[in-house]
Design brief:
Helix content is 81%, strand content 0%. By secondary structure, it is an all-alpha fold. InterPro entries: At3g27390-like. Keywords: Membrane, Transmembrane, Transmembrane helix.
Length: 322
């Protein structure tokens, strides 16, 4: 729906509702800081205690299942036996760090968002709910997260291990690994991480100013195009939080690209193993960066395509070469 909106009216609505939004934001932030110590203590201490307490049982159970299972071949068992300490240690370290980060985010942002949700249309006693919503729910939610995590580590993990030890069907063959392809997989996997991580990071950082400015522009256009959502109370928190938190979204997008590029680079080893070709693995390392570049261009409405060679061009060159 096209609605003509005068700049003075939008500016006037902005001036009227800006104090209202800032008041809700400060109230929600205050509640978040009050609840944060309890939430981060429960999540970090509770989950860390569960991880440290059950980690020896996880290690012993995993190695016991690896030795006793008949679903894996002998060579694959030896390889997994040697590399299992890495994921087991990473599981412990990332679990502890993740518990702290989850407690930090959950303890602060849940009361903050609940404060804005308290002023939605149809809610009664909005003034009271602005002060009480999100406090007790965050405390109970923190305990629920620890309980669910305990159930996963204690019940679900060993349930999966029990299924892994079941006798396979008589006609099935155990999973085995191609030993001759392992050196190429390791080399290409390491090369994929060394190349894809800096390339993904450079692409994400180069596109971040466009994402920031165009995101702000789109948000402001949405605000004005709806004849000033400040006229409706429910739109105040959403619009204000979106504008304020958009730089944080951009930073999270960059960090997510850096983190995901590690696993994307490691997947080059899988390509080498599946195709039994180092050349395909090297082509994947370059093509996946081009695909990421093209995806970010589409996401922030830049020109289509990428200056890097894509999978199609690499396949065409490979056919010509052969």
């Amino acid at each position: 729906m096209d609605v003509s909106v005068s700049c003075p009216s939008v500016f006037w609505n902005f001036l009227i509702f800006l104090p209202f939004f800032l008041g809700l934001f400060l109230l929600g932030a205050t509640k978040g800081f009050l609840v944060l110590p309890f939430s981060i203590s429960v999540l970090s201490i509770g989950n860390t205690a569960v991880l440290l307490g059950l980690w020896p049982a996880h290690v012993l159970g995993t190695y016991y299942g690896l030795v006793r299972t008949k679903q894996l071949g002998p060579v694959l068992k030896v390889v997994l036996f040697l590399v299992l300490p890495v994921p087991l240690i990473l599981f412990l370290a990332l679990g502890v760090a993740g518990s702290i980060l989850v407690g930090l985010g959950y303890g602060f942002f849940t009361p903050l968002v609940a404060t804005f949700e308290a002023v939605r249309e149809g809610r009664e006693d909005k003034f009271i709910h602005c002060f009480v919503d999100g406090v007790w729910d965050t405390i109970k939610g923190s305990c629920t997260v620890v309980r669910d995590f305990t159930d996963f580590c204690y019940h679900s993990y060993f349930s999966y291990l029990k299924d892994f030890l079941k006798e396979p069907p008589p006609e099935s063959q155990p999973y085995e690994i191609k030993v001759l392809d392992l050196p190429g997989c390791v080399v290409v996997g390491i090369l994929g991480v060394l190349l894809d991580v800096p390339l993904f990071t450079c692409v994400a950082i180069a596109k971040s100013p466009f994402m920031l400015l165009r995101g702000w522009r789109r948000l402001l256009q949405d605000l004005i195009g709806r004849e000033g959502p400040f006229l409706e109370t429910v739109c105040v928190p959403v619009a204000g939080l979106a504008v304020l938190c958009w730089p944080l979204v951009v930073v999270i997008a960059i960090l997510s690209a850096m983190l995901s590029s590690i696993f994307i680079g490691l997947y080059a080893a899988v390509v080498v193993y599946q195709e039994s070709s180092i050349q395909y693995g090297l082509a994947y390392i370059i093509a996946v960066v081009a695909q990421f570049d093209e995806y970010t261009n589409d996401l922030i409405y830049l020109r289509e395509g990428s200056c890097l060679p894509s999978q199609a061009s690499l396949s065409q060159k490979d056919r010509i070469y052969n």
